[in-house]
Amino acid sequence: DTEVTQTPKHLVMGMTNKKSLKCEQHMGHRAMYWYKQKAKKPPELMFVYSYEKLSINESVPSRFSPECPNSSLLNLHLHALQPEDSALYLCATSRDSGMPLHFGNGTRLTVT
Amino acid sequence: GQNIDQPTEMTATEGAIVQINCTYQTSGFNGLFWYQQHAGEAPTFLSYNVLDGLEEKGRFSSFLSRSKGYSYLLLKELQMKDSASYLCAVPIGLTGGGNKLTFGTGTQLKVEL
């Protein structure tokens, strides 16, 4: 069982839809991350939250909007996505700098 | 900046030993991670090396040479379930905590009978 839970597991949305991806952890980790992974490619960092504050935005388009309501939750709000945004979206956490990342099982997103 | 290189694909036989190499160039070094990722699943942590030498964990071992910018993952007694992508990753520590993890392209390992 993963200690980082992502919902939904699968999501299909149209280009005009608004949806949100959710991530929850109860490990007391203070850093949380969103990664995007296309088929046969490594995960690419999108956002980093440290102590509930956004510390890194890897030049991600504004149609992706992250939110960290508290230390256990991380959301990714989606609006007006493009078909090329279809990918596996992975949430991860780490206790602190230099510590291993723990990944959730991901949300498989398809934009039609 | 960072540059991480791994072979794209490798094939090995069940029961054999395989070594997956990773070379990196990075400004600042905070250790090196290896992750395993099965198709359609999330990456799972295998090992972390911050000092030179070999770290052994059961069938898996990881080696680091900081002076050469080189690491390898050694898998012994290969099993079919070891067929997966193996990702080398280098973290950069962030001032506010956490790390920015950059992954290599991954090595797709196929274990055959």
Task: Please give a quick description of this structure.
Chain A is mostly beta strands and 112 residues long. Chain A has strands spanning 4-7, 10-13, 18-25, 31-37, 44-50, 53-57, 64-70, 73-79, 87-94, 102-103, 107-111.
What does this 3D model show about the protein?
The complex is a heterodimer of chains A (112) and B (113). Chain A has strands spanning 4-7, 10-13, 18-25, 31-37, 44-50, 53-57, 64-70, 73-79, 87-94, 102-103, 107-111. Chain A is globular and about 35 Å long. By secondary structure, chain A is mainly β. In chain A, strands 2, 4, 5, 6, 9, 10 and 11 form a seven-stranded mixed β-sheet that branches. Chain A is built from no helices and eleven strands. Chain B has strands spanning 2-5, 9-13, 18-26, 32-37, 44-49, 53-57, 60-65, 70-75, 84-93, 99-103, 107-112. In chain B, strands 2, 4, 5, 9, 10 and 11 form a six-stranded mixed β-sheet that branches. A five-stranded antiparallel β-sheet of chain B has the order 1-3-8-7-6, with no helix packed on it. Chain B starts with a strand and ends with a strand. Chain A binds chain B through residues 2, 30-33, 40-43, 45, 48-51, 53, 55-56, 88, 90, 94, 96-106, 108, and chain B through 30-31, 33, 40-45, 48, 50, 87, 91, 93-106, 108.
Task: Give the count of helical stretches of chain A.
Answer: 0
Order of helices and strands of chain B: EEEEEEEEEEE
Shape of chain B: globular
Say how many strands of chain A there are: 11
Strands, helices and their partners?
The complex is a heterodimer of chains A (112) and B (113).
Chain A: E1 4-7, E2 10-13, E3 18-25, E4 31-37, E5 44-50, E6 53-57, E7 64-70, E8 73-79, E9 87-94, E10 102-103, E11 107-111
Parallel strand pairs in A: 2-11
Antiparallel strand pairs in A: 1-3, 3-8, 4-5, 4-9, 5-6, 7-8, 9-10, 9-11
Chain B: E1 2-5, E2 9-13, E3 18-26, E4 32-37, E5 44-49, E6 53-57, E7 60-65, E8 70-75, E9 84-93, E10 99-103, E11 107-112
Parallel strand pairs in B: 2-11
Antiparallel strand pairs in B: 1-3, 3-8, 4-5, 4-9, 6-7, 7-8, 9-10, 9-11
